[in-house]
Structures
1.
Amino acid sequence: MGATTYVQDADGYSPLDGSNGGIMLRGKVTMSNSYATGGDTIAGATVGLGMITKLETATASKTSDATHSYIFQPVYDSTAVNVTKVQAFWAAASGAPFIEVTNTTDLSAVVVDVLIFGT
């Protein structure tokens, strides 16, 4: 199973007001060098949280391959609340449908801007 890495932006830590006293983190996730079907994992502990409650993805860039466009969606694992997966989809040509990235694909050059919410 592929695992992501996370780097927090400068001033990327924000306590949230409200009843749950959560935290918002802003940073960049780098996908793994062996993408796992269903998504690469990102653990709450990896980003300094006990639990990730929400993950939003923004733009992505890939430096070694200009032939694909990417979109991402979070996948929450209800059996392991400290783990969120980031599922990747690609399209090889303009107008082509997005499909999930093939298992074991090297996405280590793909960097995704994220907002992570948790406690």
2.
Amino acid sequence: MPLLVAGLDILSGSDVRNIVMALGQPYSDLLEKGVSRVHVDEIMGVDRLLERLKDVGEVTTYTKDGRKRRYAVYRHRGPKP
């Protein structure tokens, strides 16, 4: 994750999405439309990744749960019918 974090700001939104998909679950779940909440472990740099995903419109908000050392990440719910 530290190598990814170093270049996050210069990557396009498409590049960030491709990298997140390549990381696999639970990170790839952050891009799945209709998944309203995803939990990711609190590891170095994940907050910057979440902020970048927020910038490109994939994440709406996230909150840190210090007791469980993870983030609860809230996504867009997808297109309305």
3.
Amino acid sequence: MTDEMIEEAVARAICCLSGGCYRKGSTKMCLASTCEARHAIKAFKESLAKAGLGIRPREPTREMYTAALALQGSLSIWQAMWGAYPDKPDG
């Protein structure tokens, strides 16, 4: 799921909760919902990074799997998989 897809889903939920009808960029309410969605997602990602957490794919990527093959022990495997994932949070 791309950042744009996440943003649209969150904006749609915000717009629906506000009683609006979501059509991408069609009304001021929806534009405001998109802005709110961006801020909410940014705050969420920042809080995850601050806690040393992040969102990762349900299934490991090829890079994550390859990094894990070279190691023994669950902690070192997890760290290698985490390190091989390109979208690491700062923090």
